[in-house]
Amino acid sequence: MKYFYNPIYLFLISLTFFANLSFRNSYSFAEQNIDIDLKEEIKKGNFLIGLKQYLGKNIVDEDSLIFKTDDNFLRVESENGLKHQSKEVKIVFKKVPLKKPYIFEKLVSKPLASFESAKKQSDILLKKGFRPIITMPSHWEIWLPIQNKDTVNQNFKIRRTVINNEIIPYLINKYTFQKLDGPISLTSDESIKINDINYGRNFYLIKDSYGTWTLVQKLSFPDYLKGVLPHEIGANSPLEALKAQAVIARTWAIYNSNRFEADKFHLCVTTQCQVYKPPIANKNIEKAITDTKNKVLVFDDKPINAFYHASNGGISASSSESWEMSDYPYFTSDFDFINFEKKYLYPSRKKRNELKNFLNIDKNNFFGKDHYLFRWKKKVSDKEILNLLQKNDLVKINSKILDLKVVKRGTSGRVIQLEISHNNPMSSITLAKDDIRKSLNFLPSNLFIIDKLNDNLWVFTGGGFGHGVGLSQSGAIEMAKIGYSYQKILKRYYKKTKISNFMNLVK
Q1: What counts of helices (H) and strands (E) characterise the chain?
Q2: CA angle centred on 3, ends 103 and 106, rounded to 5°
Q3: Residue 158's beta-bridge partner residues?
Q4: To 10 degrees, what angle do helices 239-255 and 473-481 make?
Q5: Cα separations (Å) of 256 from 52, 250, 253, 273, 304?
Q6: Measured between alpha carbons, how far is residue 49 from residues 71, 136, 192, 496 in Å?
Q7: How far apart are CA 356 and CA 349, in angstroms?
Q8: Which of 136, 236, 247, 460 has the most CB atoms less than 10 A away?
Q9: pLDDT digits over 76-105, tens only?
Q10: In angstroms, rounded to a whole number, what is the distance separating the alpha carbons of residues 502 and 507?
């Protein structure tokens, strides 16, 4: 599927201010020198990773890129026909004034806590006949054309931007200073250093939906995982835990490969996706990736949304507890007791006292007990809470917290609705699911109870780190240490799934 023929991308073009400047060079890849097809790259076993986003937004010195090779030439090819070879080039981004300012208007949703929440809202809009675009200029949000202003609810506001400049990349070396048009490819037969760090051989510079640019790297599945596993589960984890992580990281990346579709790459390198950094040689990681080559978890012969997290605090969550989404059949709330039979002693965690009793169980009964946030306690003042709420535009200055009340818990006992009463004006706000930790970012998880110490101090007592859905990395590490195979680890955390070869699925 080429973007040129895709109606969603034609609509994206109409949303982006460069549509009225030079979208032919910026967005149309069909029948051009440089052709990028996101779905085909996945079928070939490649990911396009956004290494550096929003280039050109900052001052030139911060956003300049220096590409170097030691022996072989690096090749630069621009959409405007420029072809260049050398062992070192510098690319800078300059803001070039437009002859006439351009006014750009669109409808923008309120900030959304996660891609999962944005996807849920986007799917609802699609069913109603809208053409939503999921974007992330600084946080997740949904865009609609201004023409829909009379048919959407108050969650959408008009955003009016006056564009005075176009951000243009230029190639600089000893002999040349030349304008570039995107997409721009940079390749070599040896590893290319970018700002003195070894990254790899295949890169693009691509204009995004916001007028800035993204440095994108093309990586094979194995090369991508080499840069993910050390930062997601740790290079020193037992081999079987590394194998389990390799399978689910590969599966998650394939399932979520449309996350940055609006900006023409698959995934980012931060916690909004999976953390990726240039890999350092590690035999155990390489073996884990090789031994699970192309293996993914599937349900109904399709890769699953293989969520994972650091610590579940002794009990996993269903997906609808953590995000505004439907439940997946392969995620259920279940205890992580070492002695599985103990689960029948604790039938419910939905009430405060039941969860309190659960949190007081000796942690030696659970897998993952060694994680430093398996059990935690946070003392937080009114002022700290108010500062966070003000930062997220949820309350006014000079408000006072009157009460914090858990309105609803999910099956696992996690808080899915939290009501915060305040006095300016005399009202309350309700945070739900992933918005709770987004707004109150001192919370390691939503598995907690609240106590009031005095008029100005609250205590949150809880367990786990992360959303609690899918594999608990600390649990997997402990299982591997006592002899669990990676297959057995995955079976425990992803019910009703099986392991398949991804390349067999796409034939």
Answers
A1: 15, 23
A2: 25
A3: 107
A4: 150
A5: 19, 10, 5, 8, 9
A6: 26, 15, 16, 30
A7: 8
A8: 247
A9: 999 989 999 999 999 999 999 999 998 889
A10: 9
Q: What is the number of alpha carbons within 13 Å of residue 476 lying toward its C-beta?
A: 34
Nearest to 87 by CA among 105, 104, 75, 97: 75
Strand partners, 405: 419
Residues 6+ apart with CB under 8 A from 169: 55, 56, 91, 92, 93, 179, 180, 182, 184, 205, 213
Average pLDDT value for residue range 406-424: 92
Closest CA to 51 of 204, 184, 262, 185: 204
Give the start-end residues of each E strand in 112-196. Answer: 133-135, 141-144, 156-172, 177-179, 184-194
In three-state secondary structure terms, 343 is helix
- Note whether 248 and 297 are within 8 A (CB): yes
pLDDT digits (tens, 9 = 90+) for 365-398: 999 999 999 999 999 999 999 999 998 888 877 7
* Residue showing tokens 């090789």: 290
Which residue carries 């101090």 as its tokens? 457
Provide the 8-state DSSP code for 338: S
Calculate helix-pair angle for 473-481, 486-493, nearest 10 degrees: 140
> With 0-12 CB in 10 A as exposed, 13-18 as middle and 19+ as buried, what is 282?
middle
Alpha helices (H) in 256-348, listed in sequence order: 283-291, 319-322
C-alpha 21: how far from chain center: 31
For 113, the token pair is 């806590």
User: How far apart are alpha carbons 229 and 428 in whole angstroms?
Assistant: 42
DSSP 145: -
139 within 8 A of 112, measured Cβ to Cβ: yes
Give the max Cα distance, the chain.
Answer: 76
Higher pLDDT: 336 or 14? It is: 336
**Distance in angstroms (rounded) separating the CA atoms of residues 104 and 20:** 10
Tokens encoding 487? 């297959």
